[in-house]
Amino acid sequence: MAVDGDTLRCQNLLEEANGRVRLARIDSPERGDPGHHEATAYLSSLITGKEVRCQLVDADPRVPGFERRDRYGRPVARCFADGQDLQQALLERGFAKPWP
């Protein structure tokens, strides 16, 4: 389930993160910002009815943005829906920007 344009809620995740995973290396509009609903709806359309797989990013302090968890405790991962790179799809359609 898409929580917003750069966050998914997954059934198989640890409860401490409330089942949420942050998509790595992108940032989408926050709740209340222009484009938030559109980004969330697009991410939802990418994952609905598809197998979503996420791979936690490596913790490498030399690479900004590649921490295992974000400041809210969510795991940070690259995610794919039936093999489609969700981060790349959001960037290509303009629903997210590279981060950091």
How would you describe this structure to a colleague?
By secondary structure, the protein is α+β, with helices and mostly antiparallel strands. The protein has one domain: OB fold (Dihydrolipoamide Acetyltransferase, E2P) (Beta Barrel). 19% of the residues lie in helices and 27% in strands. It is built from two helices and eight strands. The protein has helices at 36-47, 86-92; strands spanning 2-4, 7-9, 20-23, 26-27, 52-56, 76-81, 84-85, 97-98. The strands form two sheets. Strands 1, 2, 3, 5, 6 and 7 form a six-stranded mixed β-sheet that branches. Strands 4-8 form a two-stranded antiparallel ribbon. A hairpin with a 2-residue loop joins strand 1 (2-4) and strand 2 (7-9). The chain is globular, with a radius of gyration of 13 Å. The chain starts with a strand and ends with a strand.
Which labels suit this protein?
single chain, 100 residues, alpha+beta, OB fold (Dihydrolipoamide Acetyltransferase, E2P), 6-stranded mixed β-sheet, two-stranded antiparallel ribbon, 27% strand, globular
